[in-house]
Amino acid sequence: MGVRQNVWHSFNPADGLGGAGTVQALLQDNRGFLWIGTEGGVSRFNGDTFTNDTAQDGLVGSIVYALLQDSQGQVWIGTEGGISRFNGDTFTNYTTQDGLVTNEVNALLEDAQGGIWIGTSGGINRFSDKGVEAYTTEDGLAGNAVSSLALDSSGSIWIGTRAGVSRFKNGLFTTYTTEQGLAHNVVNTLLATSDGSVWMGTSEGISRYKQGLFTSYSTEDGLGGSEVYALLEVQNGALWIGTNATIQYGVGHGLSRFNGTEFYQLHCGRWFGG
After folding, report:
1. How far apart, in whole angstroms, are the C-alpha atoms of residue 204 and residue 103?
2. How far apart are CA 186 and CA 142, in angstroms?
3. What does pTM read for this prediction?
């Protein structure tokens, strides 16, 4: 189904897709392969066939939450059992025995220096040539349950948690919550955009941080749903926003588009709003 015929193609285990249940992470690598993280491992799709890897093939865990390709071409795979790094041939696995604060990995990011940031359910790590660093609320992090990561144009690392959002710059954390203007303290997703803004999808709307100020939007402003789970900036600078509207309200307003001044919702193949 779709707006036009022959647009949507569905794949399932009968087509060779590995795993089972929810697809929780997607990545297109520098060779054009599509990586698919599921509740039963990770699959690679070359456009024709799938290659599937599970714990039996060397993956550190079976449930994949996050995927990242670094600047060296290696693919990092965050799971419930730790993190795996794939060099094209083999997996190298890291767990709490190697310095992870906890094994459940929810988010991955590479910084400008080539360090790999790993958001977990118990804090955050940074892997680099210097070793493994670990940060928790004791170091100033807003909350230990990390959901998302973003790198802004100034080189700051933004960390979304279930207790607010933190910015890490020059070795220090600055934390923002509803007291500073954040729409809600449960932050599900983050996006740094080309105009220098950082957008935060929360459990009660969306917030934009720019030049030290927060601006927040809710369903009252035209946002399709209150819980925001996905953000994407497209070429013309518009923001696409994935929300819970379809699930919660039973209508097709789960996808919103923001043009900088107004929200529009996609419903039955047509945009409404404005």
Report:
1. 28
2. 11
3. 0.89
